[in-house]
Every structure is written in C-alpha cells, then in structure tokens.
Amino acid sequence: MIWLLLLISLINSSPPDDDFYNPPSNLSDYALGEIIRSRQSPHPITSMFINPLPIVSSHQLLIRSQDTFQNPTAIITTILIPPNPDPNKLISHQPFENSAMQRCAPSYAMSTPNFETFQIQTDLVFIAAMLSQGWYVNVPDHEGANSAFLAGIKAGYSVLDSIRGAQSFLKLKSRISNTTMTGKFRVGLFGYSGGGFSSIWASMLVSTYAPELNIVGLAGGGTIVNITLVMETVDSGLYSGLIVNMLQGLSNEYGDFKEALMKYGEIQPLHCLFPSAKEYFLQKIIGGVYDRDLLFDEIIRKKIMENDLISSLLVPSVPVFLFHSRIDEMSPFEEVLKLKEYWCSRNVSLELAEDMSYNHMVGAYMGAPAAITWLEQRLNGSLVSGCIHEFRLTNLGYPGVVPTLRTFFERTLQLFQRQS
C-alpha cells in the first residue's frame, strides 16, 4: 500500500505545473463566483485512512474571486458527489491546510496521500462522514492561489465564491442528468483550526458579499481566534513550525507585511503543516528564527489585527456551533470564550460545546460527530436561536449523535494514531 501511495504522489502534477490552475488573461470579465472552466478531477480522491471513499464522482472548478484588495483572482474548488445525494443539501468544507504553499492545497492534496499532505488527508475523514449523509461537499482551496494562510477577508471571499460556483455547477449537472432539484440549496459551513478560521470569515462576510446564498449554519472547531497568542503558545513546542507558516501566509497577501518581516529574519523555506512541524520541532521561532521585536512592529501588528477574529468588529450572520477543548494546546480556549461573549452580546445565535478531554488534533475527531449532528439539524430546516455554552467531558456525548457516527470517528482516530 505504501509504495502505491508514493507512486500516486509522483504521478500527480502539482498546481504550479498544471495549466488548469492558471487564470485567463480576461479574468476581470468574469463575474464573482462564475465558473471559468471545469473538469473531472484528474486523479482519484485517495484517503490514507478510508477505502473506499463514498464518492461517485469528483470535479474541479476554476472560479472567479477576489483578494483582500478586491483585485480579481481565480480559485480552485473541488466538488464531491456522494451516492444518492440529497439534492438541496450542500456542505462547504474548509480543510485545515494551515500552510503557505500551493502544493499543500486541498485540490492537490486530496489525491496525493503522503506525509507532506497528511493534514488534508486527516480532513478526508470528516468529508467521508458528510458524504455518507448524502450531502454534496464543496472543498475550496480557501487560501487562494497564493496560499494566503490567515488572510481572513480573502479566505471569506474565496469560500463564498466557491459556493456560488458549486451551486451553478450542481444545478447544471442536475439539468443535464434530468435529476430533481427544487428550491434553493441549504448550505452549511464546516472547518477545523485554520479551516474554521476561513469558515468564520465567510460567515461574517456573507450578508454583504453574497447575500443570495442560503447558508443555514456554521460548525467550526479548534479555531485560530487570536493569531499572536497562538504563535506565543506553540513556540518552542511540537508545532513551532506553524508560526513560520502563519507569518509566510500573511506575507503572501500583504507586500508590506513581507517587507517588515524581512527586517527581523530571513524568509524561511515553505512546508506543509506536518513537514513544517518536523522541520522546526521544539525550535524557538519568535526570539530565535525571527527577532522578537517583530511582534511590536507597527505594520505586522496592524495586519495581524486586521485578520484576527478576536479583533474584528464583524460577527456571523448565520447560526454558529463552536466546539473546542479546554486543554487545546494550540488555540487557547480563553480566547474562544472572549469571542463567544462578544458574539452573544451582538445577538449571534451560538452554541459553544466545550470539551474537557482532548488536545487540538484529537479534539477534531472527537468533536466532529457533534458538529455533523448539529449541521444535519440545520440542513433539515430546524431553527435555532440564543446563546448556549455547554460543558462535557467529551463531545462524543453530544445529544443526538448516532452510535455509527461515533464509532466511525473513534476507529478512524485509532488508525490515525497508529499511522502517525
């Protein structure tokens, strides 16, 4: 099996070598969310953990979007079709890419199972569970073609434009195949860690940027709420490399940020999440690889605050389910509490499911059944309101989680732990 996965990774063309990713010269002529081109995914979606995946077909779209500064851009999104789909239910799943390199993007990594793309491979577990519900799944390269990790506004635009394109594609596919699709799509957002960050930005921008979308709820977990505090928390630890990815991601979107960063140290080589963790294992990044004064640089502080969820005055305009571990060692829970208090004061419909048992990675698997159960209720039309904060030893005990879903994630986590 290992030799086969390695062979697949060698055969697949990475995004820089694939002309499909290149935008046309008349990019600005396309409307936001318009499909520029489409194709069947050139390589099968392949999981290191689940075989076979519940996918009938997979399609890639190049879609018109825009960057933070409203300049035209093009993004890739991948549409996954399940067996016997429920025709009006669509999930936009934002994987926790947490990287600043195009080769780490979902459209490539989902068909290239290896150590470099391991973070997206873990996300395929969540995607498989959603496909098993009969939901269409949209998986955007939500960091954009320049891999602008933590550029929040751009990520929000990318997610929303990918949903626009996905809906257009699915409606056209329905007409061609003479299948029934009535009414508007009911759309849910899901993301963990950096994927939760992008999902939340989409939920905060949808009312002004894409008000025609019928987004019925957002489920996010382990979310990066306070960028500076996350960097300080993970420094000199298992995930020190995440700091390098965060700084490079913002550099990819903001030229002045990149220029400022170079005053405090050399730009580091690019890696996907897990290779970055390996490369910088236990290293001190702030005050080591980079001079500590970078955190006090006016330009760097300004750009971080512009993208911080904890600093934003915007709030989601859709119901929100947050799941987060009190002992999360990457994204401190106290910042989630602050975010929850602010959002509730602004009348956001919010449910916070606090977990007492798991670290950042394990919390993703143990919280996903609750998130999927909550999303199922929203997609089925059940309304929700108010502000709720619930405490559990484990979110596997969330009301309504069916035993098969709980068992699926428990067993997959065990496989994940053996392989990692």
UniProtKB/TrEMBL annotation:
GO MF annotation terms: triacylglycerol lipase activity
Catalytic activity line of the entry: a triacylglycerol + H2O = a diacylglycerol + a fatty acid + H(+)
Species lineage: Eukaryota, Fungi, Dikarya, Ascomycota, Saccharomycotina
Example GO biological process: lipid catabolic process
Any Pfam family: LIP
Protein name: Lipase 7
Organism whose genome encodes this protein: Candida maltosa (strain Xu316)
Lineage top rank: taxon: Eukaryota
InterPro entries assigned: AB_hydrolase_fold, Lipase_secreted
Entry keywords, A to Z: Disulfide bond, Glycoprotein, Signal
